[in-house]
Amino acid sequence: MVDTRYTSHLNAFPPVQLPSPLTGMEMETGEQRQPQAHRAPYPVQDVLDELPPALSNVHLTESEQLRDSRDPRDPLAGYSPQGRRFHESYAQAVADAPQFTPQVQLHWCKTLLELSQDAEFIREYTINGEKLPQRIADSKTASRNQKIMLEHALKVLSKLIKLRHAPAFYLMGGLYSHKVEGLSRFQFIERDDARALSCYERGARLGHGPSCYRAGLSFEFGRGTPVDTDAAARFYRMGAGASDVDCMYRLASLFVEKQISEGIEWYLRAAAQGSPHACFELGKIYEFSALTPALQQRLQQAFPGESFPQTTRALQYYYKCAHEHGYSLAQWKLGHCYEFGELGLPVHAKKSLAWYYASVSGGKSAGTTANAMGMLGLAGWYFTGVPGVLQPNWQEACKWVSQCAAHTEGKLARADYILGQFYDSGVGCPRDHHTAQIHYKRALAHGFHRAAAHIDNTEGAGA
């Protein structure tokens, strides 16, 4: 039978309605609603009441419940890592049910949301954290199990929102904006940036830094509301007051374009609090040549007693960002400097290779992904080779360029142009004029105009 020790504590609260699924077209195209005119935030109750229709209350049949055949020496024998994690979170939530500690219950809610989207998990475990004796084979029963988990997750979330727990507003906003860490599938809720913003605003007014950040982004980039950089700055300031480093960084980015001295001050504060993004931007400021001419002029006017560039200070920030934060963009930058002898560094192939490899490993900073330019840097070294260090390997060079093009989804025109040349000449890959033309055209479409002549040269050529 389903254990009601925990769920009974929630029955006094109105059920939260699960959002209707997206249509197939919306799921495939990622179609979003157009920004709406700014309006007063939804009341808390409206956020709950306006969720789309509820799922029916469905339960697993008796035959689908766990038969107690577990090893008494290890009650979780045979459980997967996900199963053990779910069971632990469930047990904590049950023990905490009388107190309903927000942090414990929010963790349980997130666990339910995450693992309800795991196609294998919903076929093997119940909402009580119990492993089924047999894997659910039919999709209909698995779907019912998934709905039970989703419905309960939103019921927990609704109570947390009623308790005005700020991270709960943040999570609800994340569900509406399809931005929740650990979740990649949101078929159960239609994207609605306006409602997401309403939730973020509520969380922000409770002093929650991440909610301030998301609200600021919404106003800065017009998600669910017209663009309003003044409103964005207000929310970023609120978040900075709550020591949110992402808010400090975004505030700095806004001020650099208007009041550069204040922008740099916020970059310094964010970097001191561990922001790799701010650290990298400070490196660019001291490097100077990486800035736009307009920004260079404003910098010189704001600091007439300073001389630019200051390569030593630039390198200090780049090293700190690359080494301490594992920020892939800074790692690529150092690889580039050691390849071409920039910022006063010597040309050093081994160090360049090492930093390029670090940059494509994904880094250790939150949100850092493998760096596409680092992939091109490795391709270049494999193409030419390094005497005594690396033998030329055109196949490996082609592989890295291909990875770069795939990683950027064709948006880095230079990668497609190089691939076009490889396929056109049969370097590192079979000669294929048709494939070469595809890459040349893609490069041209993204602004790499040198590809135009090659498209003409390969037009009508055989594969």
UniProtKB/TrEMBL annotation:
Residues 61-74 have a biased composition (Basic and acidic residues). Pfam families: Sel1 (PF08238). Transmembrane segments: none annotated. Residues 1-39, 61-82 are annotated as: Disordered. It comes from the Eukaryota. Residues 1-10 have a biased composition (Polar residues). Keywords: Repeat. One of its GO terms (biological process) is positive regulation of signal transduction. PANTHER family: ACTIVATOR OF C KINASE PROTEIN 1, PROTEIN SKT5-RELATED. This is Activator of C kinase protein 1. It comes from Huiozyma naganishii (strain ATCC MYA-139 / BCRC 22969 / CBS 8797 / KCTC 17520 / NBRC 10181 / NCYC 3082 / Yp74L-3) (Yeast). The lineage of its organism: Eukaryota, Fungi, Dikarya, Ascomycota, Saccharomycotina.
